[in-house]
Amino acid sequence: MKNSPHPRILCLIGVVAFSACSLATPQLHAQSAVRATASTPPPSGDELVSLPEFRVETNRDNSYLATETTSGTRMAMKMIDLPYSVQSLPSEFFNDFMLFDFDELNGYVSNVKPADSAGAGNGGSRLRGFSLPQFRNGFSIIQQPDSNNVDRVEVLKGPSGGIFGATAPGGVINFITKKPKARPESSLEYIAGSNHYRRVNGSTTGPLGRNLFYRVDGTYYDFNRPTDWWYNRTLDLSGGLIYKFSENTSLNAEFAFTQRNTNPFVVFTRWVDRANRTQGLVYTIPEDQYPGYGERLTRFNQAGPYNRYQRYNNSSYLTFQHRFNPSWSLQANLSYTNRHFRRFGPTSLGNWSFVTNNWTGTRSAFHQKFNYEQDGAQADLAGKFKTGDIAHNSHVGFDWIYLGQKMKTWQLSSGPAILAGLAPGTALAAWQKPNPFDPDFLVRAGQPQFDSSWPTVDGSTNNLYTEELGAFYNHTVNLLGDRLVLMATGRLDHYTIHRQQPLSPRTTLRDADSSKNYATYSSGVSYKIAGEKLVAYGSYGTSFDPNPTVDANTGDVYGNTEAKGGEIGVKGILIHQMFSYTLAAFSVQQDNESVSNPNNPGGGNPLLPALAPGGSTRSRGIGLDVSGKLTPNLSLIGNLGWLDARTVQNLAAPTSVGQRVSNSGPARKGSVAATYAFPQARLRGLRTGLTYYYSTENVRIYGTATSTTVYLPANSYWGGMISYSFRARQRLQVNLHLAATDLFNQQILTDNAFWPTGTQWKLSAGVRF
Asked: Residue 520 in contact with residue 569, Cβ under 8 Å?
């Protein structure tokens, strides 16, 4: 597969053929068709949007209310009719509080454990206890986009394999990007803040001709954190062109480019007491026994000042939309992504020991690179029609995704070779085990420059190629005058895996293949008990999520996990259609997780498999999400969640059954954000707001016979904002804005064990014209 382009060419031909065949779709239901525009109001004059079947109407009144989504079925549908939870976070919300990093934003959705923004894009979010796959306009992506080009963030919860194919059972996150507009509009904003925060945002959109429209968004930011030598310097550019052949046909081309340089070395440093027992994270070191050690070791960056992560991402997208008649429409998409990741720097130092008053590990020089290529194709044929008094929505979809990942790692462990790359007079032992109370030493000592002649590392040098080909059918019917909505989806996928580990002495690891067919489905029902004010719903579905691990003894590929689960709940829209809520109870179980073979501990017998499909995780919980306007001037978005993710099977470690899954997220988490727009004439244009976030303690690493369990502490902190907007001229709007997080320095530790920033403020001045 990795050497032949034929599968990719065939899949692209398939999309074209699918589109061409769709042109001949019979108009059997044309006489009873439901007009595509009947359920969706026409766009405002300054908007240039997709066909109604594939677009979502958004509110621009700072209400934070979303009533439609494309993430549920890849067609535009009312959230109130979907038999599962979907939360939407609009750009107005994250711009109000300057939550530009989506790792911060995810905390405002129930049952989501947000990733750590201190990781600078390293990921790690969890939804309902499982990993959180990322999509951009319905396409799987391998790097999170920047907020500057995102119109809204939609989180679809529960097993969603029926629509998206290979996904984790907790759900997915879908970033919906901004589109060109028909009227000229531009903006420019400069932001400065604490921790040397600097950011410039800019955008421009409008017509280039009668039928051609454009959009360009750009941002650059540079800031630090209290961790030694931590920085993030990112340039992000994105844009698009839409050509309108007619009111029924358009072609949209988009691009996205990101260049990021950072030094966010993530390591969970623990401490060893004088009895030689490994304790918790270093921030828990007793101050009365070891004064100053807790904070200094937490702030210390083990990788030093010259460590850096470099990320380059180039993505291109092409979308064709055509409406055949009032009933049937087609959308076809192509995507291409090329991504490079480099890491230059030393290895970890291990833990801090008070037995030796030094590090437990010894640093060596390290270099790693990843190259990714991702190609994709989609085609969606959507129809609306009636049979008698029953309204139908029918949707046929086709997907193809290819992902190639190449990883190569070098490590220089030779003392003389390392010493030759350091500054003259540097003591090798001092560089290998640096004094955390003398960080300037590492600045003076330097770092060996990478050379491709360094020894390569077997286990961290490998190639992984995956390919997914799938098709699904989704059908929705509205009965009893739209009070009862029934939905069902069936999907078939063919998933192939090819993994290479060229340096391995074991032939079973040098080349391994896996190929499997999956059938997934989802079904659900919603019923309007009291109109749209109170809707009861329930759903059940299945999913699959390959996480390939190769058995060193047999060459078999394990980790092709599968899941099933469901949820029940109530949802509604209250207060004159201004405020929405969703309350859900869910249970989902993932099976076929790979564990060590209990009949061959450690894989010592080469005649027996080293691994076995003997692990299962079950996640249960309750989530409440609300958004909208409580009054004409008070907007609110918030959530409250309870989560219980536990191991229900582990053949290799039976004693772990019943334990909470480490790093699945806190048992209880909640957050709320509210803004108030002053209505008085003298104060018009003035808005202010507050945020609050709370999470309980959760397990990060379980203990052993010689170590204690590592817990991440409970967190509770406030944020706020105040802004003022006014028109300097007829088309020139000026915006002044101040936002802050952790107002009272309450955060104890970040999710990746970084020292918190404390009160982080940002002040901006911007114009829109």
From this structure: no
